[in-house]
Amino acid sequence: MTSPETHIAVIGAGPAGLMAAQVLAQGGARVTVYDAMPSAGRKFLMAGRGGLNLTHSEPLPQFIARYREAAPKLQAAIEAFPPDALRAWSEALGEPTFVGTSGRVFPKAFKASPLLRAWLRRLDAAGAQFAFRHRWIGWNSEGRLVFQTPHGPSAVAADAAVLALGGASWPRLGSDGGWTTILAAKGVAVAALRPANCGFTVAWSDIFRARFEGQPLKSIALSFGPHGLRGEAIVTRAGIEGGAIYALSAELREAIAANGEAVLHVALRPDIDQAELVKRLSAPRGKQSFSNFLRKAAQISPVAIGLLQEAAIQAGQSLSGMSPERLAELINTAAVKLTGVAPIVRAISSAGGICFDELDADFMIRKLPGVFAAGEMLDWEAPTGGYLLQASFATGAAAGRGVLEWLDL
């Protein structure tokens, strides 16, 4: 049975690692959380900078389906620690939640820092210890965990370990993917880490880039093959990003990997049908410039007009020379050629990681008895909207339970 003498190492002080530590400490184990950074939860704090989206309120079957092909592998963990449990956990820490108009769930304080502070106080009260500036670099010949510290290498004996080192997005916050080579050397299959919830590169014209960099495309509809949704996007110097783009990023990324490019279609006025647009665009222009006429007749912004110009150039056509019918069609089918994927260092999250076939039902790595894994280290991806954090919390809790069960055997 576990006892205060049983030492568990949790490597990674993000949501998955901290939740594993909480489960373990409450289960009676002596827990030390190791992290390469000087403090805990740095990416968690960054995620909450614009409002901490903890989870989502949609029904659980739809929720789990958001994890795509990884859904069957994550289902048990999420069902054991579902969105309602996460909300109750937050409230128990003094941070009640609310459901926004989009169905997303936020703490009423809207920030990550009060929740993290309360959580760390709870962990401290439960006896969890922390060792910061400890970068995990593998195992020594005796099977001890080895950390690089400001005072040199340190070997640590542990009865079990939970790896929760994250993926490879925003590496300056701690998750740099360096663990992939350590596990690969042990024969653990790791799917290559790739950008997820990311932007894409576009060969904008110099004029468009200089004028519209940083401007939003609002109330648009995006489509790629059978996939489509409404939302917003932002023009960047190198291409395009934003919530609606992130939601399609997995399909777009795979298409670019296969074909070298992907053509995204943008509807700038998705609520107006073709006939109505043709009627509006058939009105006399008078002395208005073409851009002013288009802005008033179709009620689209200057950046949207610029996007139409880019699409027309790509098609080898003149925007001002188009018929009302062709112009109306272009407004709701503007093609944007994506030429590449933005770097993983700028992605919100990452795809890839430890293949689920390498794990047992309790998230233990089969080839490394006593070593468990959780969070974004695992081979799954999900859209923004609370799904990323929910799976990190849930798999962290599952790994913690798995350690307790394994030690009891």
Average pLDDT taken over every residue:
96
What best-fitting shape do the alpha-carbon axes yield? Answer: elongated
Q: What name does CATH use for the topology of the largest domain?
A: FAD/NAD(P)-binding domain
Please count the helical segments.
Answer: 15
- Largest sheet features: 7 strands, antiparallel
Helix content: 25-40%
Measured between the Cα atoms of the first and last residue, the distance is 8 Å
Structural account:
The chain has 409 residues and is of the alpha+beta class. The protein has 2 domains: 7-195 and 351-408, FAD/NAD(P)-binding domain (3-Layer(bba) Sandwich); 200-341, no CATH class. It has helices at residues 15-26, 42-47, 60-65, 71-80, 83-92, 113-125, 179-184, 206-212, 243-247, 249-259, 274-281, 290-298, 302-314, 324-331, 387-408; strands spanning 7-11, 30-35, 55-56, 97-99, 104-107, 129-132, 135-139, 145-149, 152-156, 160-163, 190-196, 200-201, 216-224, 227-235, 239-241, 262-267, 334-338, 340-341, 349-354, 371-373. Strands 17-16-13-14-15-12-18 form a 7-stranded antiparallel β-sheet. A 5-stranded parallel β-sheet has the order 6-2-1-10-20, covered by helices on one side. β1, α1 (15-26) and β2 form a beta-alpha-beta unit. The model has no long low-confidence stretch (mean pLDDT 96).
